[in-house]
Design brief:
With about 325 residues, the protein is an alpha+beta fold. Helices cover about 25% and strands about 25% of the residues. The protein is built from eight helices and 19 strands. A five-stranded antiparallel beta sheet has the order 6-7-12-10-11. A four-stranded mixed beta sheet has the order 1-2-5-3, with helices on one face. A hairpin with a 2-residue loop joins β8 and β9. The protein binds uridine-diphosphate-2(N-acetylglucosaminyl) butyric acid (EPU). Uridine-diphosphate-2(N-acetylglucosaminyl) butyric acid binds next to β13 and α7.
């Protein structure tokens, strides 16, 4: 497995930010992974795993080795509804594969950019469904022991755009494959308001849900291959019921999403940013998307620092006006 030196990462991140990685290795197999990790250990340099590069911001040159995960393969297992996907497969292609095989559940997660291996790291979610709802198991490579092992749902400690892989196990395991438990029987999840509003039929099929989700995403979110972006830059904040009541009395109708934690309310960061007038704002080569203010776009030539400056201005204004701290969904490297 060749290790490339001094690689421009612009083609490896959907923000299209130019920055230099000291080394980069394409990982197509377990053998590639083991030799790349051996190289990093010998050179005493840090490593960074990368899938589709759709949820990262390179804020500076990277001094270590980027492992670009490209392992391929999708397999329907013997148990009904059980399907296994290798880490490097494109997520949306996998969603389409499942739909074609009449395996249902993840049609709400259509068109999410990135790879299957990255999906459990941030427990991807959209339109009322999260990856954890259909999780079966993960096959991971443990960098400390050099062993492969299986992790179940409890091991992964999933939360809203969160998992153990963003916490204690950050950069300590490599996802090799993901197994989902899907349903051979259609059971569309159509409660999410924006989805329910667009679905024209009373008893939608999974294909209807897939089509509508693709339509909503294509009409509201910029296609990263045409306008560089990394989806939602910020997470939706979770606040106490008391804080929510105070917001209501100050600002009228504040939308809310349910959470599983009693006494806590999730509110759309997009709403806070829209009130503050961020939609369509520009700072040189970077800007806030005019249809979805959670999305920061690179109009061309922006550096990681340009994007970070805009993001910091946005979160500072939310803090000042609403006393709410926005957390980034995008991982800053
Ligand atoms: N809203 C506004 N102004 C806007 C857009 C939205 O006020 O311009 C408010 C509205 O009240 C709207 C609510 O926000 O009803 C929710 O909007 P939307 O359905 O667009 O969802 P979101 O909470 O802004 C989240 C995810 C998206 C995902 C959508 C759909 C996060 C951080 N983002 O956005 O995920 O596609 O829900 O489920 O949770 C991503 O992670 O990259 C991503 C795009």
């Amino acid at each position: 497995m060749p290790i490339q030196q001094n690689v421009d990462l612009a083609a490896f991140n959907t923000f299209g930010v130019h920055c230099n990685a000291r080394y980069l290795a394409e990982i197509n197999s377990l053998q590639d992974l083991e030799s790349a990790l051996g190289f990093a250990q010998d050179e005493a340099i840090p490593i960074q795993l990368l899938g589709g590069g759709s949820n990262v911001l390179f804020s500076q040159d990277y001094p270590g080795l980027i492992l670009h995960m490209k392992m391929r393969g999708i397999e329907c297992l013997n148990e009904p509804g059980r399907v296994k996907v290798a880490a490097g497969e494109n997520w949306h292609k996998f969603v389409m594969y499942c739909l074609n095989k009449e395996l249902y559940g993840i049609e709400n997660l259509a068109l999410i950019p990135g790879t299957a291996g990255a999906a459990p790291i941030q427990n991807i979610g959209a339109y009322g469904v999260e990856l954890e709802d259909f999780f079966g198991e993960l096959e991971v490579y443990d960098m400390a022991s050099g062993q492969r092992r299986i992790m179940d749902k409890a091991d992964c400690q999933f939360g809203y755009r969160d998992s153990v892989f963003k916490q204690e196990l950050h950069n300590r395991i490599v996802v090799l494959s993901l197994t989902l438990q899907l349903s051979p029987i259609p059971a569309p999840c159509v409660e999410y308001p924006a989805l329910a509003k667009e679905l024209k039929t009373v008893e939608p099929t999974p294909q209807d849900v897939f089509d509508v989700v693709c339509h909503i995403r294509q009409s509201k979110l910029p296609d990263p291959t045409k306008l560089a972006n990394a989806g939602s830059f910020f997470k939706n904040p979770v606040v106490s019921e008391e804080k929510y009541a105070a917001l209501l009395s100050d600002h009228g109708n504040v939308p809310r999403f349910p959470t599983f934690d009693e006494g806590l309310v999730k509110i759309p960061a997009a709403w806070l940013l829209e009130i503050l007038g961020w939609k369509g704002e520009r700072q040189g080569p970077v800007g806030v998307h005019d249809l979805q203010p959670l999305v920061i776009v690179n109009y061309g030539g922006a550096s990681g620092a340009d994007i970070l400056n805009l993001a910091e201005d946005m979160s500072a204004s939310v803090l000042e006006k609403f006393a709410i701290v926005l957390q980034t969904e995008v991982r800053i490297i």
